[in-house]
Design brief:
The structure holds two protein chains of two kinds. Helix content of chain A is about 40%, strand content about 25%. Chain A is of the alpha/beta class. Chain A has a six-stranded mixed β-sheet, with helices on both faces. The model of chain A has no long low-confidence stretch (mean pLDDT about 90). In chain B, strands 1-2 form a two-stranded antiparallel ribbon. Chain B has one domain: Orthogonal Bundle (ABC transporter involved in vitamin B12 uptake, BtuC), CATH 1.10.3470. Classes of the chains: A alpha/beta, B mainly alpha.
Amino acid sequence: MSDAILEVERVEKRFGGVRAVDGASFGIERGSITALIGPNGAGKSTLFDIVSGFERAGGGAIRLDGRSIYHLPAYAIARRGLVRTFQLTKTLNVMTVLDNMLLAAPGHPGERLGGWLVRPFAARRREREARTHALELLETFDLSGHAGEYAGTLSGGQRKLLELARALMLSPRLVLLDEPLAGVNLTLGRRLLEHIEEMRTRDGTTVLFVEHDMEVVMNHSDRVIVMAQGRVIAEGSAQEVRKNETVVEAYLGKVVVG
Amino acid sequence: MTTAITFHAFAGADFWIGVGVLAATYGIFSLGLQLNVGTTGITNFGQAGFMAIGAYTMGILVVKDGWSWWWAMPAAIAASMVAAILVGLPSLRLRADYFAITTLAFSEIVRYLTDNTRSLTNGSQGLLGYSGGWVTLSVRFGGWLNDHGVHVTNFLFPLLLVSWALLIALALLVAAVVRTPWGRVLRAIREDEDAARALGKNTLAYKLQSLALSAALAAIAGFVLALNLTLLVPDEFDPVFTIFGFVIVILGGLGSYFGVLVGSVVLMTLLEGTRYVELPLAADKVAAIRFIIVGAVLILLMAFRPQGIFGKKQEMLLGE
């Protein structure tokens, strides 16, 4: 691949005797929207956890923009610009929607212990900037009316939106979305997809997402990576993948063709 | 046989001064627990151990090494914070329940050490003689108060004023610090540590800071305790005092620093008050009844006000 933002090479992960990820390799093209699909237990979520630093891999290599992130802890990977969301939405429900957003602001001097005291002006300025940025994003995601409410009072779909908006506070280069549409109603789901495409065209953000809805995968992704039993069994455009016999056999045949 | 339950002890100023000093001591102690448990969501069961390190470091430096008080105190706070970092570094990476067990074990190790390193601590005979400087100050302060129209003969009165001034100042300080963006990260960790990590927060560093600050507060509480007792004995650092701290935090309401002040006064009034209630029972049975009463109050609280006196009910429900 000519311009890969993320390179995953022969990544392995075992849980006891189970090979959850068994030498998976693929690349993600900069500026693309890539879907990661595969039957249950294919290793998609484990791979997400490994790439984002939430699990240690048992071997292989992972590079973000050509630099290894293999040994980095999760927080350091997020600071490098690879930000993820979770299958089970992780909004902070006892904090306000705005606080959820402000929390994500990177490089905040006030987040150091005593930073508010030692660098009061820098901290206050950063807080103001973050607030402006947060309110803009909330406006885009139609959540500004809820800014002062506890995130826990939002609907499931709105929380998915908030989680995505919050990830954007970090101005990520690559976002990993783990089933962004699970449990979201049709209208909100369509909006979510619009936001994802918009952030690619506007900010050049690369997107990798896990999704089970084949219609969404076929219509909204430039490339599709198919995993089965811990390995990547196919890669290509939606059209190519849907015609690939291995894929049809392993997975798609039951869902799409027929 | 007469079954007289008398309450006249409650009418005396001496009783309330005694309760007040204890409430301030365990109030400061519980501010740290509130920071850990209520704000950061880490279950520190070793607070009594950090208190012991603070109190004994101060006592040993003054008595055995002849340090001045004013140098011994910051050194003792530092010792307690270093201990917190050493305990926290390996154990804060673990799951919450393992961390609780580790800190509890740490606390007991400290207590056994104070009991057995007799050349330093005098073991259960107690460490005496560090409070001379305070007694002089206290007498002078009492005289000054007397000259200015405050006539209280109880020798603990100056300590009452100083300890409450400390408690209020520290409560305001911690409550202010928690409202900064630093505190926002702590609250995020309490709710969902993985979410905070995914947003680029080094959560281990924050948890260590929270624990170290809590240990510093425990050390300061240890100073007040030491001045109140004038004798340091290992029994004063039993893990049950950490449990009392938890009771204070829960009574006041998780996350509420003002609640700590109120919870501490309520608990100490109960604990000390039941000591004076005269029942036709043997002394050890009366001692057991104190704990039964505290337990009953907690059960009633959980039944009628589960969020604590100053806790927010909505936050409790949303947090589930």
